[in-house]
Write a structure and sequence with these properties.
The chain has about 375 residues and is of the alpha+beta class. Helices cover about 20% and strands about 30% of the residues. It has seven helices and 24 strands.
C-alpha cells in the first residue's frame, strides 16, 4: 500500500488558505503560519510561546504552541508549510480531567458531543457541507468521543479529504482536530472491479491459492483509482506469500510494497483459484524472524503452540482467519493483522500474524500470553499452614 499512498501524495494539490499563497509556491514563513492559526482560531491577538519547523525531514510542518500561565490550558497547532492550512489543533485544557476509562463515561452525551464536533468542523473545514463527507462510526477514546468524516466519490473511492474531531464527554469542548482539504479529484472511471484486482494481484505475485485478503479499499487521485489490500496465500510450490498490493483500477497495473516473485504488469483476466476456506498445511516447530521494518520479532507456528497446550484446539475460519481456544479463552487473529480478539476484546500486537512457508505464524509475545493463560492458577488452601 505504500506505493499507492506515495502516488497519491505526489498527485495531491492542496488548497491554500492564506492571501498570496498558491499551490506549488515556496514554503510560507513562520509569520504567515502564525497568521494562519490566528485566522483559524478567530483571534487576531493570539500570542505564541513557540513557533518552529518540525525536525522530521519526511514530514515538514510548523509547530506552534501557546503555553498558559498555569499550564492547564496549553494549545498546539500544526500548519502545512506549503499551503498554510492548519492541519491539526490540540487543546490540553479539554484533555485534562477525570482518569481515562475504557468504557464511555461523562455527563455529556455522545449525541451532544457529536453536535459540538460537527459545529467546530463546519467552522474550520472549508466547504464541509458541499462535499460528500461520509461519517464513520464514532469511537470512544479514553476521555472523549472521536468523530471522523471522509470524502467519497460516486464510485465509492475515497479522496484525501478527511477530518477528525474529538470532544470531551465531561465538558463538551473540542480536545483535538485534524483535517486535510484538497480539490476533489475527477479520475477516469475504473475498468477493473475489486474482485478482478485481487485476482490480478494474485497472478502477478504467483499466488495460486489465495488464502487471505483484506477488504479492498479504493482511493482516488486525479488520474486513477487505486484498489489497495493485503493478499496472502500459496504459490505453485506450496510456499506461503504475503504482500501489500495496490492495483490501478483504470489501467490494471499491479504494484507491491516489496518486489513480488513474478514481474508485475498490466492485468488481464487471470485464471486464479480463490479458496478462502483452505486449511493450512501441517507445520513444523520453529521460530521465524520478522523481515519487516528492520525490527527483530520472533514467531512460532500456531499449530506447534497448540500441540503444547492440553485441551486446546485450532479452527481455521477461512477469510476470518484462525481461532485458538484454550482454558476457556478464544484467540481470533488474521494473517497480516496486528489485532487479536481475546474473547471478543481486541488486543494490539507489536508484530503482525503472518503466513510463512505454509504455516500460520504468531509472534512470541502472543504465544507467551496464550501459554500464561493456559497455565492453571494455583490456589492456597484455606486453614492452617504447616
Amino acid at each position: 500500500m505504500r506505493l499507492c499512498l506515495c502516488a497519491i501524495a505526489l498527485l495531491t494539490i492542496a488548497v491554500c488558505t492564506l492571501p498570496g499563497c498558491h499551490a506549488g509556491a515556496d514554503v510560507i514563513t513562520v509569520d504567515q503560519a502564525k497568521q494562519a492559526v490566528r485566522a483559524f482560531e478567530g483571534d487576531p491577538a493570539l500570542v505564541f510561546s513557540s513557533a518552529q519547523m518540525s525536525d522530521d525531514p519526511e514530514d515538514q510542518y510548523y509547530e506552534l504552541r501557546y503555553s498558559s500561565p498555569n499550564g492547564d490550558d496549553d494549545k498546539e497547532w500544526d500548519v502545512d508549510p506549503n499551503t498554510g492550512q492548519v492541519r491539526s489543533a490540540t487543546y490540553d485544557g479539554a484533555l485534562f480531567g477525570p482518569e481515562w476509562t475504557e468504557e464511555p463515561s461523562g455527563q455529556v452525551t455522545q449525541s451532544a458531543c457529536r453536535q459540538a464536533g460537527l459545529t467546530y468542523v463546519r467552522a474550520h473545514f472549508s466547504d464541509f457541507d458541499s462535499l460528500n463527507m461520509v461519517e464513520s462510526d464514532p469511537k470512544w477514546d479514553s476521555r472523549g468521543w472521536r468523530f471522523s468524516w471522509q470524502e467519497k466519490l460516486t464510485n465509492g473511492a475515497e479522496t484525501r479529504n478527511s477530518v477528525h474531531v474529538q470532544v470531551s464527554a465531561q465538558t463538551g469542548l473540542v480536545q483535538y482536530y485534524r483535517g486535510r482539504r484538497v480539490p476533489t479529484p475527477n479520475p477516469p472511471a475504473p475498468q477493473f472491479t475489486p474482485e478482478q484486482a485481487i485476482a490480478a494481484a494474485a497472478t502477478a505475485a504467483g499466488i495460486v491459492n489465495v488464502m487471505y485478503h483484506t477488504d479492498p479499499g479504493m482511493v482516488a487521485t486525479d488520474t486513477a483509482v487505486y484498489c489497495s489490500f493485503e493478499i496472502g496465500g500459496e504459490d505453485a510450490n506450496g510456499d506461503g506469500l504475503l504482500y501489500d498490493a495496490s492495483v490501478n483500477s483504470v489501467t490494471g497495473e499491479v504494484e507491491y510494497s516489496e518486489p513480488p516473485p513474478v514481474s508485475a504488469g498490466p492485468a488481464a483476466a487471470p485464471p486464479v483459484t480463490i479458496n478462502t476456506k483452505k486449511r493450512p498445511s501441517q507445520v513444523n516447530t520453529h521460530a521465524e524472524k520478522s523481515p519487516s521494518k528492520g525490527k527483530t520479532a520472533r514467531f512460532i507456528a500456531i499449530r506447534d503452540l497448540q500441540a503444547t497446550l492440553p485441551g486446546s484446539s485450532v479452527e481455521w475460519l477461512g477469510a476470518g482467519g484462525v481461532k485458538l481456544t484454550v482454558n476457556g479463552l478464544s484467540y481470533e487473529m488474521k494473517p497480516g493483522d496486528r489485532a487479536v480478539k481475546v474473547n471478543g476484546k481486541t488486543v494490539m500486537l507489536t508484530s503482525k500474524v503472518m503466513i510463512k512457508n505454509k504455516k500460520v505464524m504468531i509472534p512470541l509475545e502472543l504465544a507467551e500470553r496464550i501459554k500464561k493463560s493456559a497455565t492453571p492458577k494455583t490456589r492456597k488452601a484455606a486453614g492452617k499452614t504447616k
